[in-house]
Amino acid sequence: MLFRQTLAPWVALLRWNKPSGRLILLIPAGWSLWLTPDAPPSLALVFMIVLGGLAVSGAGCIANDLWDRRIDRNVERTKLRPLAQGSLSVAQAVVALIVLLIISLGVVLNLPDSVRDLCFLLACLALPPILIYPSAKRWFAYPQAVLALCWGFAVLIPWAAQTGDLNGGWPLAGCWVATLLWTFSFDTVYAMADRPDDTLMALKSSALTLGPSVLRVVSVTYALSMLALAVAAASAGVGLIFWPFWIVVASGMQRATRALKSVRQQPMSLYGVHFSHQVLLGALLFLGLVLGRLG
Fold first, then answer.
1. Distance between CA atoms of residues 151 and 71, nearest Å
2. Among the four 24, 137, 140, 255, which has the fewest Cβ within 10 Å?
3. Average pLDDT for residues 177-191, to the nearest whole number?
4. Confidence band, pLDDT 50/70/90 cuts, at residue 265
5. Taking the CA of residue 111 as centre, how many other CA atoms within 13 Å lie in the half-sphere pointing to its CB?
6. How far apart are CA 80 and CA 66, in angstroms?
7. Which residue, 76, 53, 68, is CA-closest to 143?
8. How high is the pLDDT of residue 5?
9. What is the rounded average pLDDT of the residues 197-203?
C-alpha cells in the first residue's frame, strides 16, 4: 500500500494513469513506419521507436507541469497534478526530466550508423518546441499548432530511422501534414474544456481564439488530415484493404465533431471522451495501414 502511494505521484507526473495520451503520440509514428517503402519495419526498430516515444512523451508532460505548476492549481482539470498539489518537488521533476531525455538520447545513439546522424539532428530540432510548447499558451494565440509541430517529429524521426533519409515524397509529406492537422484538431477540442479557466487567467488557446467557429474549423482540419493521409497511402501503394478503414475513420471524426455541436452545455468529460475516441480512430487507421501493406 505504501509502495503504491509512493509510486502514484510519479505515475501521474508521467500521465501513465491516462494511457490515451501516451498512445496517441505513437500512432503517427506507426503510420510513418508502415508508409515507408521498406515496410514492414523490424521488431527491433519498433521497440526503439516505442521506447523513445514513451520517454519523449513523459519528458514533455514533465516540462508542461514545470511550466504550469502555479497555473494548474487554479484549473479544475489539472489541480490534482503532482507538482500543482505538492506531492512531488520541482527538483524531483527536473531529475526525472533529465533521466527521460537521457533515455531518449540513448535510443537515438543506439540506432544503426547509417541513420544515426540524421535521427540525432531531428531529435535536436524537436527538443526546443517540446520544451517551449508549455509556455505557448502565454504568448501565442494558437498553442495547439506548436504541439502539432512537436507531433510532426513523431513522423519524421521514425521515417529517418527506417530509411536513412527524408526523401519520402508524397507518402512522407502526406503523413506529416495529416499528423499536424489531426493533432491540432483533437488538441483544440481538448482545450475547449479549459476555456473558462483560461479566460480567467488570460491564457490563450485555439479553442478561445477561434471562438464560435471552433468546431467548424476542427471539422475542416479533420477532413484535411484524412485527405492528406489518403494521398500518402495512395502514393505509397497501400493495398485496397486499407480504404474501408479510412472511410470508417474519416466519417467517425466528423460524427464525433457533430456530436459536440449537438450538445449545448458540454460537460468537461465530453472533451476527454472525444480525445479517447481519436486514439481509437488513429489506431484503426494504423491497423488498416498494416493490413494494407501486408496485403
1. 24
2. 255
3. 95
4. low
5. 29
6. 14
7. 68
8. 64
9. 86
Point out the least confidently predicted range of 14-28, 106-120, 224-238: 14-28
Give exposure, 157-191, as e/b (b: 16+ Cβ within 10 Å): bbbbbbbbeeebeebbbbbbbbbbbbbbbbbbbbb
Residue whose C-alpha cell reads 519523449 in the numeric block: 56
At 3 the pLDDT is 47
The answer to whether 145 touches 206, Cβ cutoff 8 Å, is: yes
Q: Do residues 64 and 132 lie in contact, with contact meaning Cβ atoms separated by under 8 Å?
A: no
CA 197 centroid distance within chain = 23
Return contacts of 224-227, CB within 8 angstroms, 24+ apart: 224/177, 224/181, 225/177, 225/178, 225/179, 225/180, 225/181, 225/182, 225/185, 226/178, 226/250, 226/253
Cβ atoms < 10 Å from Cβ of 195: 16
DSSP state for residue 212 in the 8-state scheme = G
Sign of the Cα pseudo-torsion (214, 135, 177, 162, in order):
negative
Q: Where are the alpha helices (DSSP H) in the chain?
A: 2-13, 20-35, 43-72, 82-85, 90-109, 113-132, 143-163, 169-191, 195-200, 206-209, 214-236, 242-261, 268-294
Angle, CA 184 vertex, CA 178 and CA 186 arms, to 5° = 100
Check residue 217 and give its pLDDT: 96
**Mean pLDDT lowest among 64-78, 201-215, 218-232, 261-275:** 261-275
Assign 255 a pLDDT band (cuts: 50, 70, 90): very high
Sign of the CA dihedral running 35, 185, 23, 10: positive
Q: With 50 as the cut, is the pLDDT of residue 160 above it?
A: yes
